Amino acid sequence: MFELDRERPGWFMRVSRIAVGVLVLACVPVTNAVAAPAAVSYTGGVPVASCLNDALALSPEENRLGATPADQFILRAGFGGAVGEFVTELCGSSGYSDAVTVVERRSALLWRSAVDRVQGRTTRGALAAGDDRPLYWSRLAFAAALRRWSPADAVTGTQRQHLIDILDSVSRGQRDVDFGGDSAKRVLVTGFDPFGLDRDVRTANPSGAAALALDGTVIDTPAGPARVEAALFPVRWRDFGAGMVERALVPSFTAGPNRVDAFATISQGGPGEFTLEYTNGAFRGDSPDNENACYLGPAPIPDDVPTVNPRPQWTVSTLPVDAMAAATSTPFPVVANRVVREIPLPPPAFLPATTVCGLATLPNLAPRMPDGPSTPSVAISGGGGNYLSNEIAYRATLLRDALELRVPGGHIHTPILTGLPDDPTQLSAPEFERNRAAIVSETQALIGSAVADL
Predict the structure, then answer these.
(1) CA 160/CA 147 separation, integer angstroms
(2) For the segment 248-305, what is each residue's pLDDT rounded down to a tens digit?
(3) Where do the domains of the chain lie, and which CATH numbers do they carry?
(4) Is the entire prediction scored with pTM above 0.85?
(5) CA within 20 to 30 Å of 410's CA: 63, 65, 107, 124, which one?
């Protein structure tokens, strides 16, 4: 590894060995859950139905649905009915075109249900309302069903992937950004899925919880109201390389009723503090993502998205980071971070990208620069490291510059969410809930500080 990125899986130390069980929804008591049709059963959290071929392989991420207690995040949040209804409608669809409609509608309902649950508009299940994990695991159950769907009229691999792509974007709110056209300032925030799940399948991500809590809310500022819209992103290299970030953000970064006045990408960072990252680097470290895939080398930008040419090694935050750090410091300290790692030009010959895991050899060649990058230099690690937290910040600010969007924008790292009990069968604990609530509350305050002078 190049360096210990604060959002890397290496920060997570709890390890549990998991067993796979078989579950039928109707047999499990779940508070306020809507029972799935009897035709849908589950192996762990993986749906089983007549139209699903269990000989078809799941992705490494979807395979974690078989890990106890992954299914409980669906059931104990009251989302079992949503999964069962999705599978039933999928099985009843007449073919690919019909399935597109089912996936679009059910994915939008899943996102809205998750937001409503976190914000207290609906009461479902026994898990705390602020939990981001039910949405993540329910989405994976949807994806597993799509991966194994075997209709009478066979679908092509391209069609199947398109259905999964619809699910991935719609159920993360990426197509739900709508500021309503009023006079309020427009602020877009993004969060991430949980990651590091091979170490502990119960892991949550407070950036996702914050995004769900903020979506559609209005912040009162000295300059007037600011409306916040939110979206989530997967912890997967391939989606970023395919341009998911840029395609999700372009509508909010170009002229029109949804053009933002400010934005913040948010992710989980290091222990005990918030960090506001000044500088983002154009380089990926070798840490595995949620599909256990690695990528070492320059971050690829697709040809069909707006960008800056030649592509810069570094981009910078335009958030008022010093003012934000000074205004918000309770209960966690807030640090404005300028540290990066770089190597001088010309770069070594081994910088071309590789997807082979465990080949990182650059730490000794990448000095730590406490006050930001020198000029010229090659990025090895931005302020937020060289995992996907740094990359979403790099992509968002690069797109900002490509589209000449002159607004505050940058990256916020939250503290690590701690407090899970040692017993791996326990999904939560009072300390865990208090810590998440504190992180979400302070994230909201930081966003308020960021837009105070808009």
Answers:
(1) 7
(2) 999 999 999 999 999 999 999 999 999 999 999 999 998 999 999 999 889 999 999 9
(3) 41-168 (no CATH), 179-451 (3.40.630.20)
(4) yes
(5) 107
